[in-house]
Write a structure and sequence with these properties.
The complex is a heterodimer of chains A (212) and B (10).
Chain A lengths: L2 H24 L7 H14 L10 H24 L14 H13 L6 H15 L2 H10 L1 E2 L1 H28 L4 H23 L7 E2 L3
Antiparallel strand pairs in A: 1-2
Helix pairs in contact in A: 1-3, 1-7, 2-3, 2-5, 4-5, 5-8, 7-8
Chain B lengths: L10
Family (chain A): Belongs to the ERD2 family.
Main location (chain A): membrane
Protein name (chain A): ER lumen protein-retaining receptor
Chain lengths: 212, 10
C-alpha cells in the first residue's frame, strides 16, 4: 500500500466520522442530504459483499466493517433518531436518476458478467455520483455549515488521493482498472466547484455561501 | 494480465 492509498482511506474515514460526530453533537442533521447517505450505504453494501468470501488483510476487513457500520448508523440518525431536524423540503434530488443508469451501465460495461462483479461495478458507478443529492441540497439552500464543508472536503479528497494511488500503481506495477479510474475521475470532477469554494472561503474563516 | 480489479482496495 502506498502513501496516497493510505491517505485516501484515512480521508474517507475522517469524512465519515466528521459527519457522524456533527449529527451526534449538534443533535441535528440539518443541511445533510439523507438521500446521499442512503446511496453511500448502498455503495458499501454492494461493494463489500466479498467481505466473508475474499479475505485480503485485517486492515481491509476492519475498514470495510467500519465503513458499512458508520454509513448505516448515519442513515439511522437522519431518518430515525434526528428525523425532526431532517431537511425534507430541500433534499429532493431524485435518486432513481442515479440508481437506474448506474445499474444499467453496470450490466453493460463490466469486467465479468457475474453477480458479484456486476454489483461491484454498480457500486463504483453509483459512488461516483452519490454526492450529487448533497451538492444539490447545498446549492438549493445556498450555504453549508463549516463542519459540513469539512466533511465534503475530506470526502472529495479521498477519491483524488485514490487517483494518485492508481497513477502510482500504474507506473510501479503496470496496474490499472479503467472502470475504477474513469469513475474516480468523474467523482473528483464533481467536487471541483466545491473545492474552489472551500479553499477560497472556508479556509479563510468564512462560511460557505453561494453567490446569489 | 494487468487489467485486474483493484479488489484489494476499499
Amino acid at each position: 500500500m502506498n502513501v496516497f492509498r493510505f491517505l485516501g482511506d484515512l480521508s474517507h474515514l475522517v469524512a465519515i466520522v466528521i459527519l457522524l460526530l456533527k449529527i451526534w453533537k449538534t443533535r441535528s442533521c440539518s443541511g445533510i442530504s439523507g438521500r446521499s447517505q442512503i446511496l453511500f450505504a448502498i455503495v458499501f453494501t454492494t461493494r463489500y459483499l466479498d467481505l466473508f468470501s475474499n479475505f485480503i488483510s485485517v486492515y481491509n476487513t476492519s475498514m470495510k466493517i467500519v465503513y458499512i457500520t458508520c454509513s448505516y448508523a448515519t442513515v439511522y440518525l437522519i431518518y430515525g433518531k434526528f428525523k425532526a431536524t431532517y431537511d425534507f423540503n430541500h433534499d429532493t434530488f431524485r435518486i432513481e436518476f442515479l440508481l437506474v443508469p448506474s445499474a444499467i451501465l453496470a450490466f453493460l460495461v463490466n469486467h465479468d458478467f457475474s453477480p458479484l462483479e456486476i454489483l461491484w461495478t454498480f457500486s463504483i458507478y453509483l459512488e461516483s455520483v452519490a454526492i450529487l443529492p448533497q451538492l444539490f441540497l447545498v446549492s438549493k439552500t445556498g450555504e453549508a455549515e463549516t463542519i459540513t464543508s469539512h466533511y465534503l472536503f475530506a470526502l472529495g479528497s479521498y477519491r483524488l488521493l485514490y487517483l494518485l494511488n492508481w497513477l502510482w500503481r500504474y507506473f510501479s506495477q503496470g496496474f490499472y482498472d479503467l472502470i475504477a479510474l474513469l469513475s474516480g475521475i468523474l467523482q473528483t470532477v464533481l467536487y471541483c466547484d466545491f473545492f474552489y469554494l472551500y479553499i477560497s472561503k472556508v479556509l479563510k474563516g468564512k462560511k460557505l455561501s453561494l453567490p446569489a | 494480465d494487468n487489467l485486474i480489479n483493484p479488489k484489494d482496495e476499499l
